[in-house]
Amino acid sequence: MSSGSGVIENAGPVGDRPQGLIYNDDLLECVATIILLGSRPGAKSAEALPRLKKILYDYDIYMLSSMSDEDVEGLAKTIRENGVDGIKLADRKLKEKLMAIRDNARVFVSIASEHNSVRAYIDKIMKDSGAGALEEAFTSPDSKYKLRLFGAAACKKLLKQL
Questions:
Q1: Does domain 7-161 sit in CATH 1.10.340.30?
Q2: Is 139 exposed, middle or buried (0-12, 13-18, 19+ CB in 10 A)?
Q3: What is the pLDDT of residue 40?
């Protein structure tokens, strides 16, 4: 997703941010995109990503983390019934994916509060212990930073973006 120029594929530019600087919300966008598109992304799902980003508070980790289960369920129902900008999404797991994105935003808030930012945490783990340790932190059921609907393959995909 990242071309090294501060642009995340399928998500648009990161605005006026300095080149190479990746914010918590940008990292959540990468994670959310991987979750939403899954292993076999359909063209309709990819087309809907820019509007989904707006619906999901531009992946603001604090706004998303404050959503209740009822908020997420209502959003999933609205998207299923009305589509996104005229694009009907036939994703039977949409509610589960949106819940996972919300829960992952909560994990990112926890990481940011303990390590100043998600990127600082990723950089520290990568420097001290390598990619295997980061994969373990994001995918192990015993990890306090376990991400939902985010396995080893998704973690490797995320690391390629950085």
A1: yes
A2: middle
A3: 67
